[in-house]
Amino acid sequence: MKIFFDTEFTGLHKNTTLISIGIVTEYGHEFYAEFNDYDKTQVDEWIRENVINKLLFEDNKFGHISGDVCIENKFQMKGSIDLVEEFMTKWFNRFGQIEVWSDCLSYDWVLFCDIFGHAFNIPKNIYYIPFDICTLFKAKNVDPDISREKFSELRHCEEKHNALFDAKVIKACYDKLVKMQA
What order do you get walking across the sheet with 99-102 strand by strand? Predict the structure, then answer.
């Protein structure tokens, strides 16, 4: 099974911390988590305006969990990286082998692995090699710098930089790309 994910984080530098993660499966199951332990001192005006303002939970709702991770198709939570790892692992355990896709995934994949401590600790059913739709765009002769929202034809593009919305855009781009002739 394929999953499509995106993260939001505190900046493009080596000490960045996760703010949120959104995951959508090829069948439409969703996992969304906001982290309450990201480094708030790294948040600049751009991050505040474009990422923090698009989070789903308010600051006073730390630890809120919506739905049952084992049965719900749409799971949302806010908590520490350890709590997110616990629930994300349970969510992944519902599925068989998982192939991971993201967009410009250099930071996303490292931060994804950090949720589990490091790459050797990711759940065993997750294939250790991630795939990047940037490469798929290039292979399909589409400019990899194209607007993902425009290409995907999804509405509500004002939600860009919400990790769950961005994961949905990645999935929509993937679905459209694989239908194209090379």
Answer: 65-66, 74-79, 30-35, 18-25, 2-9, 99-102, 131-132
Q: Are 156 and 163 in contact (CB under 8 A)?
A: no
| CA–CA dist 154, 174 (Å, integer) | 13
The total of other beta-carbon atoms located within 10 Å of residue 180's CB is: 12
Sign of the dihedral defined by the CA atoms of residues 88, 129, 105, 155, in that order = negative
In the chain the first and final C-alpha atoms are separated, in Å, by: 23
Partner residues linked to 12 by β-bridges: none
Q: Is residue 24 included in any domain, yes or no?
A: yes
157 lies in some domain: no
pLDDT single digits (tens) 49-97 = 999 998 988 664 444 566 666 667 899 999 999 999 999 999 999 999 9
The pTM is what? Answer: 0.91
Cβ proximity of 37 and 81 under 8 Å: yes
Q: What is the CATH number of the domain that holds 44?
A: 3.30.420.10
Instruction: Please report whether residue 90 resides in a domain.
Output: yes
Rounded to whole angstroms, the Cα distance separating 175 from 160 reads: 19
Q: How many CB atoms lie within 10 A of CB 83?
A: 18
d(CA 53, CA 148): 21
Strand partners, 21: 7, 33
